[in-house]
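Sample A.
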Amino acid sequence: MAKNQTNKNKSNFKNPIKGKPKFTFNIYWIYIAVFIFLGIMFFTDNGDTKINREIKWEKLQQVLLKKDYSKIIVVNKDFAEVYIKLDAIKKDSLYKDLNPKSGFLGKEANTKEGFYVYKFGDFQYFRDQIKDVENQWIARDTVGAESDVKKSEIISSSRINLTPVTRKNFWGESLSFILPFVILIVIWIVFFRMMRGGSSSSGGGGIGGGIFNVGKSKAKLYDKENDVKTTFEDVAGLEGAKLEVMEIVDFLKNPKKYTDLGGKIPKGALLVGPPGTGKTLLAKAVAGEAKVPFFSLSGSDFVEMFVGVGASRVRDLFKTAKEKAPCIIFIDEIDAIGRARGKNLASGSNDERENTLNQLLTEMDGFGTNAGVIILAATNRADVLDKALLRAGRFDRQIHVDLPDLEERKAIFKVHTKNLKYDKKSVDIEFLAKQTPGFSGADIANVCNESALIAARHNKKLINKQDFLDAVDRIIGGLEKKNKVIAPNEKKTIAYHEAGHASVSWMLEHASPLVKVTIVPRGQALGAAWYLPEERQITTKSQLMHEMISLLGGRAAEDIVFGEVSTGALNDLERTTKMAYSMVAYYGLNEKIGNLSYYDSTGQSEYGFTKPFSEKTAENIDNEIHKMIEEAYQKAKEILTTNREKLDKLAMQLVEKEVIFREDLELIFGKRPFENVEENTNNNSNIEEDTTDSNNTSEKEVN
């Protein structure tokens, strides 16, 4: 029992020395010690040095007349040192400023001598001042002297001897010569230490920056020590993309399963999709699931102002990756270095980006081998990438990450509402998914966050359905500006404009039905309308035409009611023109132009100065666009003229209430004749169409 107790005590015993931190020397301690020593020497006298004070002529004249000096030394004909006798210093209060202070740490002072320093401007003028003092001596001392011999003795003894001395300030001259070199050396050392510090502080297992490591890769390394917590369970939706990426991860974990069949691991996978769809999140999940070294960096990390740095960083990245194989390299926004070569407008110049791309192509699939190194990249501009980069052997797979559909939006909402405190009775996740067509995963995350902020702003304990709807409106249209002052005539114009959109869309079969209309300014829009569009995979010509007609309904209403139009239709005209151009030039939906498409899916035409069609064809395209838009405009005016009374009633309600809903339109227009078709459509959603731009935007359009 005693033995066990002894062992227990030993196990509980802690060595106090072992836990103490090691002593580390810091160079700044030397600087502090030097400053302390200089301060002590400056503010205290040690009693063994000469004490000197600067003096003016009036006081020097008194000293000379009292003959309390022992000698006068003229230094370099610049100043004079007037040494005072020690007895005079101790007895006469005139020289109290030469009395020494207490010595260092209370040591008793033991001054050898003290002197005054008199700085004269001109040596000859100083000689004349001395002669005046000598004459005063002679006049004072010869009083009562009767014999000439006595007077001659007094005159000869009344001379003030000036001892000229030439001094060279060895330390001052040396310092003036050495100091510039010392400053340069100190600056160089500090700069060197800063660069070394920048290199050692960067991540990636020694891969870092610094002036001497400028050619090193900036990739950050994630391994067992820097583990990523994101997994595939955190990625909602993207089922097809997840399947292909998970196969790569599974190959790294269980290679025998594939190699037994003769399969080889893909050398690279390119994630392609619109912004905010989860490409980087998918890469994080790969880093969290793969359990192999994961290098993460951006395409812009290769870009540098120095020639050859980008290519050097590529070489260093792959060299480090080969040492840690098997591993994964993730390059985000690869279009920063992967754009198609030969498109530089400044011909003859050295394009550093092209050199970097050439090195990347060589490393990915060149003469050497990269066994066990998988490249994962992401971009939303795959159309501008170089063809050599996209070929098999470099990026074997192109994984498209599209905007989520209804079911995927439901899954994304479930992920982002997991940590939210919301009213589960009033908030329906499926309803929210229907209200957000065209939203990316990042947009949905923003909706959930905005709903929490809106609920907190109103001091609510739970987030309710209206908070989510307000968040959707906030993200689509911007912040509501209820305090913005609008003149009554402008308010009426805006009301008729929005009523025109609502009326026309209500009467057209393929136009998206209305949810609500508001004339409260929001963001850059003075008014806005929310619709319920179908989620279509293809769109017919009649559907596009009906959408164009509803877009022009606002301007048509202004024309019919007021006899003139305003600049408020800027956004409508822009969208209509682009839609008509696409129908004529891209989709082949015009009879005169025919079944032709001038769309370049490769994206290479954006660097060119020429069009893929002749001047005559360009003129025909312009005429057909104008004809198509004018036809839609006349159709909108025809619908509004037929329903003028209902238009007026709807506009007046808007002026009065500022916000009207679908139920208000049903009371005025009745149920839509296409209601049965809409009821069979399950994927209806809430989207806002900004129909009236702010005054600033309108002024820009006019100018």
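Sample B.
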Amino acid sequence: MNHAIDEDGKVGIKQVEIRQENKLKLLGRQLPKDNVRLTHLKLNEEPTAEITSDPDQINDQVVKFFSRLWQEEKIEEREMEEYLHSYNKTIQSTVDKPDLSLVIDTIMHTNNSSPGPDGIPFVAWRKVATLAGPIFVEVIEALGEGIAPPKDFNHATLFVLPKENFNYLVKKTRPISVPNTANRIISTTIKRVIAPPAIAVLHESQAALAGRDIGQNVIDFNEFYYSHLEKGTQAHLLFLDFEKAFDSVSHKFILKMLEKLSFPRWVINTVKGLLNQLGVWTTITGATPRFIEVGRGVKQGCPLSPLLYCYVHNSFLDQQRLL
């Protein structure tokens, strides 16, 4: 059963069969234009490799590459404990469970971005916010208690976009995962709850947070460089680029990091639920969608992902401070 909205905005309950072509029409409203979609790809990484435009061959390459990239990496509890042994930052404020008013506010401030695999747009939830709000609260409550969601709750639609200097290589693409709108509403609600404590614990260089100015990093760099230039003193800068950073984060380490930061158990359980049985459906035009399991990494397209990555990356920044 799906909720359907009639012309007066009232809720009717009826069977709704969402055909694949209708899903794609909905998704197409906010999708990248044709010139940035994946239409050609090398069959391997060799310089002389054939470039194909065959949708099925492109789909095969996408599935092969990302299945390998997102394969769960075994990490022992002991390894995490040793790595975080000297990490002593903890949140300094209480983290209360979201109430009904926060959930409804989250629903009402959604945009009109693409729906996920189920095809339900955000506008549908906005139309029934007062009815849907209590249901979302119950879902969050259940996740917080450690109840696993349905197996397809964390499934998403995958869009693979060429990066700059793409050169027809699948490894030079950006995977954008679009979860269902209900999933994103819950993720956004949780983000709003756990983001405020971030200011107190995240390294100052992590400036892409509310209340911080990302331009400050540029200012700090310039001041460092020109101050040494004026003094004629030696200085060293280390630039690191994490390849596929979002895609390689361990789910176990995310949960361990939240525990180390002293987040309450309901937060850890909820995030665990939102990482449970992750998977994406490919959307190569002309090819049959295929499913890819996601055993590690955070979704580029999930509202909660950047914050979770920041918490994890903070442990690395702390290690560099100790060098």
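B remarks: Residues 43 and 61 are 7 Å apart (CA to CA). Strands lie at 2-5, 11-14, 41-42, 51-52, 155-162, 173-179, 279-282, 291-293.
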